[in-house]
Amino acid sequence: MKREQRMKGRSAHFFRGMKEGLPICLGYLAVSFSFGIIAMERQLSIGQAVMMSAMNLTSAGQFAALTVISEGSGYLVMALNQLVINLRYCLMSCSLSQKMAPDAPFFHRFFVAFGNTDEVFALSMMQKEYVPPFYSYGVILIAALGWVGGTLLGAAAGSILPPRVLQALSMALYAMFIAIVVPPAKENKVLRILILSAMACSAAFTYAPLLKEMDSGIRVIVLTVALAALFAWLHPVKEEPA
Amino acid sequence: MKNGNIYVYILIMAGVTYLIRMLPLTRIRTPIKNRFVRSFLYYVPFVTLTVMAFPAMLTSAMSPWSGLAAMGAAVVLSWKKKGLILVALAACAVVFLMDLIVA
């Protein structure tokens, strides 16, 4: 393919990615706004909050990290906590790996990996045939702008908006977690049981006498590994058709 | 903030997160076949997100009842597949109004 043709193809993919990623950007603005607010509550500086968002692009992971940091749980707990919470990206990357053209230059994978969030992954998997690297770059760029920009606005808003409003807005992050887990549970009884079990265990580990001494960061690790393993053993997922 | 340099924390987070995303994308080209591992990885996010949302959602509002109401609103709207922005806005609106009434 001539160089000019290649460049045109790349731009087309890139701009299409940016266009199709716009809804993700808007969703991220709302949620990262709430993250920014919470980060301020946990005594981070605006710069630190923005840095966290720019370097991670994870909602649940960043949120959990705030707890690990404010409880002073230590570097090892942070690493394990992030490992467990972000474990789902492992599976997503496996799936995405096959969705990327085998003959595309390998180095693209190192960059695309950085921006592989839940929503970016979902969009990538919806592509017909292979997902072009430059399409991914377009989506990741616009999504990241939303995520980092929202964090900045949220962190800055902390000094402008009244406390009641801030507190209400910080709910957005929790709402996002619910918006992710509930819809699949609607069709899947095992998921419903899993979610209810997780709620019960989480409550137990928050209020019960000995259990509540456990660090929140460690609690997430322990419950995730224990419950996911138990359910994987008792209720393995159905094999996908070949 | 107790112990630990925050920048080290951020670097560790970023490093771990990136490795988790990057290693499979560059090392694994075939699907994971082991049924237990696949099931485990599938269930993980449901547990983590639930554990992080509950009961924290109740305690982060001014009154647990506001938190509960917000949670209820979020669950109902998500169940109806209403989309992230609506679910988030509804949860915020509900907790704001309830906090005005209750607290």
Overall description:
The complex is a heterodimer of chains A (242) and B (103). Chain A is mainly alpha-helical. In chain A, 77% of the residues lie in helices and 0% in strands. Chain A is globular and about 70 Å long. The two termini of chain A are 34 Å apart. By secondary structure, chain B is mainly alpha-helical. Chain B is extended and about 55 Å long. Chains A and B meet through helix 2, helix 3, helix 4, helix 5 and helix 6 of A and helix 1, helix 2, helix 4 and helix 5 of B.
Question: What does this entry show, briefly?
Answer:
The complex is a heterodimer of chains A (242) and B (103). Chain A is built from 13 helices and no strands.
Largest sheet of chain B: none
Poorly predicted sequence stretches spanning 5 or more consecutive residues of chain A: none
> Regarding quaternary structure, how should these chains be classified?
heterodimer
Q: Indicate the structural class of chain B.
A: mainly alpha
What is the H-and-E element order of chain B? HHHHH
The major pleated sheet of chain A works out as: none
Shape verdict of chain B: extended
Number of E-type strands of chain B: 0
- Work out the radius of gyration of chain A: 20 Å
What sequence of helices (H) and strands (E) makes up the elements of chain A? HHHHHHHHHHHHH
Q: What gyration radius of chain B follows from the Cα positions, in whole Å?
A: 19 Å
Helix content of chain A: over 70%
Number-wise, the strands of chain A total 0
Q: How far is the first residue's CA from the last residue's CA of chain A? A: 34 Å
Instruction: Give the largest chain-chain interface (CB within 8 Å).
Output: A-B, 100 and 76 residues
